Structures
1.
Amino acid sequence: DVKVTQSSRYLVKRTGEKVFLECVQDMDHENMFWYRQDPGLGLRLIYFSYDVKMKEKGDIPEGYSVSREKKERFSLILESASTNQTSMYLCASGTGNQPQHFGDGTRLSIL
Amino acid sequence: QKEVEQNSGPLSVPEGAIASLNCTYSDRVSQSFFWYRQYSGKSPELIMSIYSNGDKEDGRFTAQLNKASQYVSLLIRDSQPSDSATYLCAVGISSGSARQLTFGSGTQLTVLP
């Protein structure tokens, strides 16, 4: 089974802090994705990566950056957290035409 | 804008009935189609994949794809209260350097005991 592990299930941070969300997959997938999910807005793609050190913006990249130094690890960075970034963050990995597999999610609250 | 449309529901069916969930998509070159189940507060879980026209059955679940009509559906037979969840339709597209998924907004299903 594919295993996608997110570092935290719940996280509380303060406005202006730099926040790191970590994601690790164990299936050697070349593609990794970060989404956020908000009530009424569905799943929205923030960034994705198709190879080590390669990244592309998704639909809502503003206020976020990403890092992929190793194939199995994909990090989402909130440069200066704001209250409108309070959300559920979901990491996923996949390969080719196959489905994406999701981690358990991180529920992030920015106070 | 590539879109995936689902009836948001909520959809309620009695236990033992067939639940029918529908999804339409706008991008004619889409090649892969998925259904995810998401329980409240949890992450999406893959339940069905379908790539070619016709029906695909897995246990109580049947996915149906009609590329000419740009339509994909999910049937759940003998619905159980444990099937109560939000069901997300996802369509695979090639965009940029990786295959991405476009998700519908989900259909909330409630199975009544």
2.
Amino acid sequence: NSKVIQTPRYLVKGQGQKAKMRCIPEKGHPVVFWYQQNKNNEFKFLINFQNQEVLQQIDMTEKRFSAECPSNSPCSLEIQSSEAGDSALYLCASGTANTEVFFGKGTRLTVV
Amino acid sequence: QQKVQQSPESLIVPEGGMASLNCTSSDRNVDYFWWYRQHSGKSPKMLMSIFSNGEKEEGRFTVHLNKASLHTSLHIRDSQPSDSALYLCAASKGSALGRLHFGAGTQLIVIP
């Protein structure tokens, strides 16, 4: 069973508001991913970290999102100014070189 | 456009029947394939992974990979109603820590 903990499970924000979600990766997993799953079940990779360093991120993430994975604190993903199109399930996943990637239960964001 | 194509989009099989799901990557840089299962409202959980040409079996699940065509298939024999879920294929370059490119999934419904 996955031990990736995401909070909150549900988040409702108005357009233009900040939306912040958190993820505690499984203990001992140095790599953390954030994915966005839309209502059509399509996954979009957002960003990944190894320890505290960003490995890869897409253009959208660079411009409108901020994310970090500080040591000894939860990782976080924040949308600076929420748009209706940001409504989705945000999934955090973690892993090591010798295991599969484990997903958390996600944060479902609704932008009204 | 989607780098990972899955078919069919949805599949209905009777209880006890065989379900066959397909997945092809158009990105020749990938070399690892993953099959995830996502029940409604839950996080994706890895079912099977395959990196080498050929076939791998685990219980009722068999996965095939043809690296030349970058095609993988998942076969579920003796399908159960509890197998009803969204089946996601993902491809990555390198290990589990590579960025996962997901397909849009096959929605499997097993009818008692």
3.
Amino acid sequence: AQKVTQAQTEISVVEKEDVTLDCVYETRDTTYYLFWYKQPPSGELVFLIRRNSFDEQNEISGRYSWNFQKSTSSFNFTITASQVVDSAVYFCALSEAETSGSRLTFGEGTQLTVNP
Amino acid sequence: DARVTQTPRHKVTEMGQEVTMRCQPILGHNTVFWYRQTMMQGLELLAYFRNRAPLDDSGMPKDRFSAEMPDATLATLKIQPSEPRDSAVYFCASGPPLSGGAVEQFFGPGTRLTVL
């Protein structure tokens, strides 16, 4: 069965600090996708990134970067120079293409608070 | 900027009443999902459709919930009769298929349902 674990329930940082959100997943599939979503206080789920299991290249998008390591089944998300607007709940999610079709399994989420 | 739309955004109803939630997927997306978010359970998949056909509704209480896609531009989720434990935020998501059968999912703003 697929599973996603976000061990950090809450993180609080001061503006301009770097912060890393951890995500560990379990799957038996060889083909799968990993996602990160942001849920700001407004409640919407905003797509941030997807990664497929065959692409372990790290990715950077502005202040955001993602580190995918199959050897440790982790897909961690780093925000550099955090800002107050980054305050949100961040969800990591897994989609196993082979065994569960398009179903997304979400982690429990990490509440990030960035204080001024 | 294409978005998934959901109506109503908020719904307060009394136990026993029928509730209908609507979703308009992004034009061209052939897969539609319904998720429910609660504090206790987090984000959980209720059902999903591909090309308007239901593929998986195993996450949905069958006795009171029903999901349909009358046409490619409308998905509905009905609860009849509603119960207080159905109080949650219901998200609709749509997406185009990725390789290997997975789907990139874009979420609507959600319907916040309160059943008194």
4.
Amino acid sequence: AAGVIQSPRHLIKEKRETATLKCYPIPRHDTVYWYQQGPGQDPQFLISFYEKMQSDKGSIPDRFSAQQFSDYHSELNMSSLELGDSALYFCASSPWAGVPNNSPLHFGNGTRLTVT
Amino acid sequence: GEDVEQSLFLSVREGDSSVINCTYTDSSSTYLYWYKQEPGAGLQLLTYIFSNMDMKQDQRLTVLLNKKDKHLSLRIADTQTGDSAIYFCAERLTNQAGTALIFGKGTTLSVSS
């Protein structure tokens, strides 16, 4: 079965540079979520999109932005990178299943960002 | 993971049962989830339970929910070395589309042979 595709798998950037992470959801999934997971930490929710509109917002820094495109893929743009941004960034997707909302998130394998 | 709490470590012997516990604080949670993460990998959905259920069984996995105490547990029967991983409990707070899951800090399960 098709899974969530994230690219790149690994990314090395220097401080103050920018980075763009891409996420391709499972076909027919209309919702994407971005999470950040630091070493030894639980996944922290950043932002989500439903039908190309921002849906829920978590602890996303102002230096980061994201969007969902007409083909439902999403990109996370990160600017003025800091050492503390080094983490595993996960994208997840889910279909909208109505109420009650049982739409388990299906995660990609993540992008490991290292800021030097 | 401030609203979802888990014990951090659990060590069991191969063939024993493992029980991973989780407490959550928001009584409006509708669905609760268990995810598994192996080193360097993504989060794999194991199972989930609706808040009006007490128990759900899926092969070696049994989920128990005590809604009054806001306590969720995952029991793994006949634990194998391949079950060694971090297990995250997660809750969804609202029914709106796009509402994120909030994760606990994860329980590291170590299985020895």
